[in-house]
Design a protein that fits this description.
With 321 residues, the chain is mainly alpha-helical. It has one domain. Helix content is 78%, strand content 0%. It contains 13 helices and no strands. Helix 1 packs across helix 9, helix 2 packs across helix 10 and helix 4 packs across helix 8. It is elongated and about 70 Å long.
């Protein structure tokens, strides 16, 4: 049964469901800042973000997809049951963190799922080590840190440059500029995140690329409002100026990592950037207790999704023969 055409087609459907939950779960990454600053209405924001999620298919290479397909677990270990178990682990963790309103990384959930399922089948030798694991684990820390530092520097630099400008004119100008920064961030989000599913499906054919981007765009349209509230309202208060700085900083980080084939966490990146904007105002502007809960979710994502995938593989192996 595991080798049947229907089983493989079912896996493709589940992979696209993961991409949908990725867009749905990570919709906050693309729209929280532009919604919280009231530059766009929630409906306009999700349509804007979804369009640029999809257009990313025509901008970026498939380097991240290659990393997921070959740089996480050994291809020889991969079979239909491993892939299905990995996707179950990633989707389950996405749903758990969405319900809690905590922004976590769908990217790391998928990598953890792949690792857990592969270990369940063939032990730790199934992992490609160091492969892309070291870079991915390092960027759990570096991505938000770089996002924070760029956002902090950009906020301070622009604040100094515009210190004599009228606040009303600054606000009006950045309401327009934030449309561009939101589009750039959404494109970086779509470019990096949609490729994870491409790597899981098979063969980077044009239809695979377009369907993966369409799924993540559809998920963004569905939205994940629990996480939007956390990112856009609870972590720190944003105005159009701060939203522009956060989104621009996040886009810079994502574009660099995507072109270098590193699976990045868009969640980590934008959280760091929003925190950087808050710190530039004053340290107390950031709700550090909430930030701590988010960091714990980041730390738990890979082992938790790996554990779910490991158990899923053991169960599926007894059912699917």
């Amino acid at each position: 049964m595991a080798d049947s055409v229907w089983f493989v087609l079912a896996i493709i459907v589940v992979a696209l469901v993961f991409d949908f939950t990725n867009g749905w779960h990570d919709a906050a990454n693309s729209i929280a800042t532009v919604v919280s600053t009231r530059v766009l209405t929630p409906t306009a924001a999700i349509v804007w973000a979804a369009c640029f999620n999809f257009l990313a298919a025509f901008v970026f290479t498939t380097a991240v997809a290659s990393t997921i397909g070959k740089g996480v677990i050994h291809p020889a270990v991969v079979d239909a049951t491993v892939i299905l178990s990995a996707l179950i682990g990633a989707i389950a963790w996405n749903l758990i963190t969405w319900y809690a309103g905590i922004p976590s990384s769908s990217s790391h959930a998928l990598m953890g799922g792949l690792a857990g399922a592969a270990i369940s089948k063939a032990g730790f030798a199934a992992l490609v080590w160091p492969g892309k694991w070291v870079a991915t684990l390092v960027f759990i820390i570096l991505a938000p840190t770089i996002g924070l530092l760029i956002a902090l520097a950009l906020t301070v630099a622009l604040s100094w440059a515009l210190r004599r400008a009228m606040p009303r004119r600054v606000d009006r100008a950045f309401r327009v500029l934030q449309l561009g920064s939101a589009a750039a961030y959404s494109q970086g989000h779509g470019g990096n995140d949609a490729q994870k599913t491409m790597g899981v499906i098979v063969g980077l054919l044009l239809w695979v690329i377009l369907v993966a981007h369409a799924a993540i765009a559809a998920g963004t349209v569905a939205g994940g409002w629990r996480i939007v509230r956390t990112m856009g309202q609870r972590l720190t208060k944003l105005r159009p100026f701060g939203g522009f700085c956060a989104e621009t900083s996040g886009a810079i980080v994502l574009f660099g990592l995507t072109f270098n084939g590193i699976p990045a966490s868009t969640t980590h990146t934008i959280t760091g950037a929003i925190t950087g904007v808050g710190v530039a105002q004053r340290v107390s502007a950031v709700r550090w207790g909430l930030a701590g809960r988010i960091v714990w979710a980041w730390i738990l994502t890979i082992p938790a999704s790996a554990g779910i995938a490991l158990l899923s593989y053991l169960l599926l192996r007894t059912v699917v023969r």
